[in-house]
Design brief:
By secondary structure, the chain is α+β, with helices and mostly antiparallel strands. It has 2 domains: 3-83, SH3 type barrels (Roll); 107-219, no CATH class. It has helices at 3-6, 50-55, 58-67, 107-114, 128-141, 205-219, and strands at 12-15, 33-40, 43-48, 73-76, 81-83, 146-150, 158-165, 175-176, 180-187, 190-195. Strands 4-3-2-1-5 form a 5-stranded antiparallel β-sheet. Strands 6, 7, 8, 9 and 10 form a 5-stranded antiparallel β-sheet that branches. It is elongated.
C-alpha cells in the first residue's frame, strides 16, 4: 500500500516504538506525535506537535541547532508511522547518550575545546565571559612575537610584528564585544594596539591556526 493511500497530508500520526533517528542513533523516536504536512518520493514530512517538542531530550534540539537542521520537522518512512488515536504521549527517552568525540581536525571542535565543551554543545556566542575565556587560551598558547598582516578590515593592512596581547589590568584583559581581544603590534618602530580579529597571514603554523580559529569564532 503506498504512502499516499495510507497517509495523507493533515493526518495525525505517531512514530512506532523502536524507531531511531537516522542521524543520531542514540535518540529513539518512538511515541513522537505530529501532523503529516507533505508526502514526497515515498517519505512523509512530519511537523512535530508542541507537546512532543516539550518532551524530547534537550540534546536532540542542541544537535539540530549545531548541524543547522530544523528540529520541528522530520522526514520519515511511512511504515515507521502509525495513526495517532489520541491519549497521553508515551515518548521513548534515550537510555544512553553517545557524544561524538571532539576532533582536532574540526575548527568548531577546536573552539569547543577552548571552552571545555562537548560535541553536543553549541559554540558559545561572543560576549564578555566567552572573550575572557578565549583570552586565557590565546595568552597561554600563542608564541610571541610573530609576524602578521595587521589592520585587515581598515583598508590599509601592513606587515608588522605582534608583540603580545594587551596585558591585564586589575586582573582583567582589555576586551570589547564589538572588537574582541586586543593585541600590541609594532610597525616600523611604531607601537599600536589593534583587535586580534584584524590579523591575517600569521607567521607560524600553530599561531596561524589559533588566530584563524579565533577570527572564525569572533566573526561568525
Amino acid at each position: 500500500m503506498s504512502a499516499s493511500i495510507r497517509f495523507r497530508p493533515g493526518d495525525k500520526v505517531r512514530v512506532r516504538r523502536g524507531v531511531k533517528d537516522v542521524e543520531y542513533s542514540d535518540i529513539p523516536l518512538g511515541g513522537w506525535a505530529g501532523v503529516i504536512t507533505e508526502i514526497d518520493d515515498g517519505l512523509c514530512t512530519v511537523k512535530w506537535a508542541k507537546e512532543t517538542l516539550a518532551s524530547i531530550h534537550p540534546v536532540y534540539r542542541s544537535r539540530c541547532e549545531r548541524d543547522g537542521s530544523d528540529f520541528e520537522i522530520y522526514w520519515i518512512e511511512p511504515d515507521e508511522l502509525e495513526p495517532d488515536k489520541g491519549g497521553p504521549l508515551d515518548i521513548e527517552q534515550p537510555t544512553r547518550i553517545i557524544t561524538r568525540p571532539l576532533s582536532s581536525n574540526s575548527q568548531e571542535d577546536r573552539i569547543r575545546m577552548i571552552f571545555g565543551l562537548t560535541s553536543d554543545d553549541l559554540v558559545p556566542e561572543v560576549n564578555d565571559n566567552s572573550l575572557h575565556a578565549y583570552y586565557k587560551s590565546l595568552s597561554k598558547h600563542l608564541v610571541f612575537p610573530f609576524a602578521a598582516k595587521c589592520g585587515v578590515g581598515y583598508g590599509r593592512p601592513q606587515r608588522g610584528q605582534v608583540i603580545g596581547l594587551v596585558p591585564l589590568e586589575d586582573g582583567k584583559p582589555l576586551i570589547d564585544e564589538s572588537y574582541g581581544i586586543f593585541c600590541v603590534a609594532s610597525f616600523k618602530g611604531e607601537v599600536m594596539t589593534l583587535p586580534v580579529a584584524e590579523l591575517d597571514e600569521v607567521e607560524g603554523k600553530s599561531n596561524r591556526q589559533l588566530i584563524k580559529d579565533y577570527c572564525y569564532w569572533f566573526h561568525n
